[in-house]
Amino acid sequence: MNSIVTFPNRIPVEEFEERRFQVYTDRQLDKIEAIQQLPEETRFEMRVVASVLPFRVNEYVINELINWDQVPNDPIYQLVFPQKGMLKDEHYERMANLHREGAEKADIQAAAKEIRDELNPHPAGQMEMNMPTLNGEVLDGIQHKYRETMLFFPAQGQTCHSYCTFCFRWAQFVGDKDLKMSSTDAARMHGYLKEHTEITDLLVTGGDPMVMKTKNLVQYLEPLLEPEFDHVQTIRIGTKALTFWPYRFVTDKDADDLIELFARLVDAGKHVAIMAHYNHWQEISTDIAEAAIRRIRSTGAEIRAQGPLIKHVNDDADAWAKLWKKEVKLGIIPYYIFVERDTGAKNYFEVPLAEAYNIYREAIKQVSGLARTARGPSMSAGPGKVEVQGITEISGEKVFVLRFLQGRNPDWVQRPFFAKYSETATWLHELEPAFGEEKFFFEDEYEQMRQGNG
Ligand SMILES: *Cc1c(COP(=O)(O)O)cnc(C)c1O
């Protein structure tokens, strides 16, 4: 018997009212009161963009997280509401004309599909290269790209409490069924994990697994306490619910069951890591957001924070420093800062690598060592996660210093390599090797992996 005080004693009791979850999609844009105050032209632009890119926002985000006096420059407004610049001019004009003419729904949808297909809906070989098999059968809803970590996309968790305008998985939220990655089969997920004892980390992701009912989550996670899963030491859950719906952890009907599940997993010896997606300190500006964090941490689960660096939202060193300080104060561990991927509304959100690195450095300079656990800015590209480690001059040539934080071949990790400096490059494929080399060291091997389909 262990003497550790267990649930429910260590869960602080908080006095919060239950809140009804009320959500708006593109069809209900006009029902959002706050939006009605905006100029008609702005609302038209939103309708146009929302017919191409996913839109979904809930009442809590609208009323508690957005500072409407700052609109359109408010970071959370930019994070959830469609803006004209998110579509290229030609795409915008095409769609706007259809709306002006009062075109049929079917015509709007057909045009939307064509536009989406031009927006690189599956960045970094998501569909072709990361498909694992079990008994010769391709497993939907599972990705296994890096040796230690398996990604699992439970079918019931493939939506979110609100959508981020810059989401790199935007394609799975816009109708076309064949774009979705999902799995209904817990047994196959468990089967794959059983066979792959090199996997130490299961990352449950989406969408947002926290939109699932606790009872579903229990079905996936509870069996991992059996001895045949001893190699799975960490259960990570990727979520933005701490921002978009912190009530999930505090007052929702099955919030207590969820907290109890975390506590049970921790007590049984698993490391439970909530991988929170944060972009801006304003997301942690409400009492309920802090209460959710305290409640999760009281179970022994850790919260790690990651998120992309995005123009119009957080391309600002002071905002990052403030976010990291707030995270550390609340016991959250800063983890990754990502470069916005080359997909969707990238042209609106992209920040050149050089600028992203400078923002990162200026922010890191302002915080204590405990907040300097944030690594990046990092590109989740086909070959792996590539971090911009610095900008320097070597033998008279200005270069980026790069390294893999994760690689398709684990042996690529941590080797410094160099690219010609560029003011404008925003992604790995725009970089050229420095010092007159023809290729980066990993390119031939990566090409072979692509030919061999994985
Ligand atoms: C980032 C990532 C992981 C996890 O990598 P860590 O560095 O261990 O956090 C796993 N799989 C994929 C596909 C990823 O992009």
From TrEMBL:
UniProt entry keywords in alphabetical sequence: 4Fe-4S, Iron, Iron-sulfur, Metal-binding, Pyridoxal phosphate, S-adenosyl-L-methionine
Cofactor(s) the protein needs: pyridoxal 5'-phosphate; [4Fe-4S] cluster
MF annotations from Gene Ontology: 4 iron, 4 sulfur cluster binding; catalytic activity; metal ion binding
Positions carrying N6-(pyridoxal phosphate)lysine: K385
Family under the similarity heading: Belongs to the radical SAM superfamily. KamA family.
PANTHER family recorded: L-LYSINE 2,3-AMINOMUTASE AQ_1632-RELATED, LYSINE 2,3-AMINOMUTASE-RELATED
Protein name: L-lysine 2,3-aminomutase
